[in-house]
Amino acid sequence: MSRQRVVLGISGASGAAIGVRIAELLGQSPEIETHLVISPAAQKTLAIEIGPDAVAHLERCVAKRHPSDDIGTEIASGSVPTAGMIVAPCSMRTLSGIACGIADNLLIRTADVHLKERRPLILVARESPLHLGHLRAMAAVTEFGAIVAPPVPAFYLRPERLSDVVDQIALRTIDLLRLRNAPRARPWSTSGH
Ligand SMILES: Cc1cc2nc3c(=O)[nH]c(=O)nc-3n(C[C@H](O)[C@H](O)[C@H](O)COP(=O)(O)O)c2cc1C
């Protein structure tokens, strides 16, 4: 059976650790081939929030990293099958670009391809507070078929460390793609708590 191709976009919202964790988790499965796009702003947030080695670490986790200005690479074409795309974290700029179909960089172009091909697109949209334009963009992408999954902690699991919160958000996001043999979030159980 062929490997499931997944696109991971990391844009310049806070929460770079979530994108990194998703790349690490997807990279654990031999049945998943991850294609990574990092926006220029995300290079900055990755350096600020994780450190200078974050991009090199990400590149080791994935099958291929695509330059964000290479709109001619394979994942920019709907003819190349994928199992879906995650944008984590998703900035309001990238969200708005997707909502308007302004496909002038590879990340937004590939998200646009996922919408036009009716494939899963998960947007871990991060900003607070939200103005009406953000909310309207979220409504628009939802109408187009995307799933907006903001990075909110599952307080009911009583996380002890920030890494618990990041893990849980990363796993729940991956769950939404319904991949074969992917790492899964632990389901809520009343007996286990
Ligand atoms: C440290 C840092 C944190 C940021 N956090 C957010 C955020 O949480 N949400 C957001 O929409 N933009 C945030 N921004 C601003 C975006 O990086 C900026 O709007 C950028 O143009 C987004 O470009 P991109 O969507 O191409 O990555 C942040 C910027 C920095 C430097």
Give the arrangement of secondary structure elements.
Elements: E1 4-10, H1 16-27, E2 32-38, H2 40-49, H3 54-61, E3 64-66, E4 84-90, H4 92-100, H5 106-116, E5 121-125, H6 132-144, E6 147-148, H7 162-175
Parallel strand pairs: 1-2, 1-4, 2-3, 4-5, 5-6
The protein binds flavin mononucleotide.
The DSSP helix count reads: 7
- What name is given to the CATH topology? Rossmann fold
Helix content: 25-40%
Number of domains: 1
- How far apart the termini lie comes to 38 Å
Q: Any low-confidence stretches, pLDDT <50, length ≥5?
A: none
Number of strands: 6
Average pLDDT reading: 96
Q: Provide the succession of SSEs.
A: EHEHHEEHHEHEH
Mind summarizing the main beta sheet? 6 strands, parallel
The top-level CATH class is Alpha Beta
Anisotropy-based shape: globular
Q: How do the strands line up in the largest sheet? A: 3-2-1-4-5-6
CATH homology-level superfamily: Flavin prenyltransferase-like
Small molecules held by this entry: flavin mononucleotide
Strand fraction: 15-25%
